Amino acid sequence: SDGSTIIIGVYGYDDTSNGNQGLIRVYTYSGSGTTWNQKGSDIIGGGTNQSYGHIVKINNDGTRIFTGTDYYDRVIIWDYNSGTSEWDQIGSISIGNTVRSLSINNTGSRFVAGKDTADGQALIYEYSGTTWTKIGDFTASDTGSSQDYEYVDMNGDGNIIAITGVNSSIYNPDATGTSNHNGGTKVYEYTGSGTTWNQKGNT
Fold first, then answer.
1. CB neighbours (10 Å) of residue 107?
2. Could you give the C-alpha distances from 190 to 39, 76, 94, 105, 165, in angstroms and in order?
């Protein structure tokens, strides 16, 4: 949260004959001048089109990192191991399609991922210390009609999310240059149990 640790993703990186493996690298500030020291080793996707680094997130204390992949259709999470000075994978969650957007809470114990589908979908997961459990699942019908993409955000506590659905016709309008489909944003607050989120306000 103090900006002393940063994460960089290069989703088109390729160090073999494979394509779009992707790379993630973390740096911490030395405290003076312009010197940043790498934290842990590079994380490189293991195969073609795994696209690590497509979207990257880091928690407030710089000990947990996330990537949302493009072609590989996953959210993958690592914790920093201070004993080995390496990043240990603690999760790989199949989203089912391109991760369009990703947001995490302050500690990195929860995340929300926006999924690129014909209907649009946002999925919320929570870490129990050993497993990631789904605690929310929203489709286009929850945010408005004809939504192709889901853009998401989560507050620091991880109990409030915002979901925006945007129809692709906004980017590809008809011959008149106009779109007949509008996006919509809604805000939800977690009840604290199960998968129930209640709408907050009118949006």
1. 15
2. 34, 23, 22, 13, 20
Q: How many residues does the chain have?
A: 203
Q: Is residue 101 within 8 Å of 91, Cβ to Cβ?
A: no
Nearest to 84 by CA among 115, 41, 130: 41
Res. 173 pLDDT band, cuts 50 70 90? very low
Q: Please answer whether residues 95 and 147 qualify as being in contact, where contact means their C-beta atoms are separated by less than 8 angstroms.
A: no
The model's pTM: 0.89
DSSP state of 170: G
pLDDT interval class at 130 (50, 70, 90): very high
Higher pLDDT, residue 142 or 65: 65
DSSP state letter for 169: G
